[in-house]
Automatic annotation (TrEMBL):
Segments forming domain AB hydrolase-1: 22-247
InterPro entries referenced in this protein's UniProt entry, alphabetically: AB_hydrolase_1 (IPR000073), AB_hydrolase_fold (IPR029058)
Designated name of the protein: Pimeloyl-ACP methyl ester carboxylesterase
Highest taxon above the source species: Bacteria
UniProt GO MF annotations: catalytic activity
Pfam family, any one: Abhydrolase_6
Gene3D superfamilies found in the cross-reference section: alpha/beta hydrolase
């Protein structure tokens, strides 16, 4: 039975309802990490940006216990809502969800035409020999900033500066991420399944990302027939936060060409 999203899952909606649809999928840090993507893409698209079940204090259903479950649930929602030609844009774990959705849509006749294109921004999820994913759960705030940001001083968050509510949400998000993505944040089968994707695909990585390196991203792009790969300069794991102008310069031409 296909996992289902809770009826009350929060979808931020932005942009022209008549424009092409983009589904923006956030990473482990929560929906605020993709806010610049939502704002920028809303200028030319109808944007749907859900808060994943289990993040930001929401409930995690018993039947969603993996990224595959999340991907199946989102794809099922697009089908139920009669969505067509949706572009998937995912950041970090969201990139993994987007790729899994694209693979599943490619192998399901009932999903034909639902997904038009996919953009993976510094996504985790695959296993690449010689390019391990950083152990996110072992990193302290300083280590996370060093691994995830081109300029670690911009990315460092002093735990003492957080409110009790912020610390609780951060801890809860981490627990949900561990449940859904696992400590390895990868699926050993995914890389070999990416060849099923036959829609336009862009893999974009910050040049200074050390959570997953640009070499890791190139391996992902190489596994998808016809996929494009691009590095975003002066940026780490969240290039749309750290260097948005350079990120738009990479993403916008791809989106325009795939419309």
């Amino acid at each position: 039975m296909t996992p289902s999203l809770p009826a009350d899952v929060e979808f931020l909606r932005a942009g022209d309802p008549a424009a092409p649809v983009v589904l923006v999928l956030h990473g482990g840090g929560g929906p605020q990490t993709v806010a610049p993507l939502v704002s920028h893409l809303a200028e030319t698209h109808r944007v749907l940006a859900p808060t994943h079940p289990g993040w930001n204090g929401t409930a995690l259903p018993d039947d969603i216990r993996s990224v595959g479950d999340l991907a199946a649930a989102y794809l099922d929602r697009l089908l139920a809502d009669r969505m067509r030609d949706v572009t998937l844009v995912g950041s970090s774990i969201g990139g993994w969800i987007a790729l899994e959705m694209a693979v599943r849509a490619a192998g399901d006749e009932s999903s034909a035409g639902v997904v038009r294109a996919v953009v993976d921004i510094d996504g985790v999820g695959v296993v690449v020999d010689g390019e391990p994913i950083a152990d996110f759960f072992a990193l302290d705030p300083r280590g996370l900033a060093e691994a995830a940001w081109h300029d670690p001083e911009r990315g460092y968050i002093d735990p003492a500066a957080l409110t009790a509510e912020q610390r609780a949400i951060q801890q809860s998000n981490g627990q949900t991420m561990a449940t859904v993505a696992g400590r390895s944040m990868s699926d050993p089968s995914l890389l070999s399944r990416l060849g099923a994707i036959r829609i336009p695909a862009l893999v974009a990585f910050g040049e200074s990302d050390r959570i997953v390196t640009p070499a890791y991203g190139r391996a992902v792009a190489d596994a998808i027939p016809g996929a494009e790969f691009a590095e975003v300069p002066a940026a780490g794991h969240l290039p749309h936060l750290e260097n948005p102008g350079a990120t738009w310069a990479v993403i916008d031409p791809f989106l325009a060409a795939s419309r």
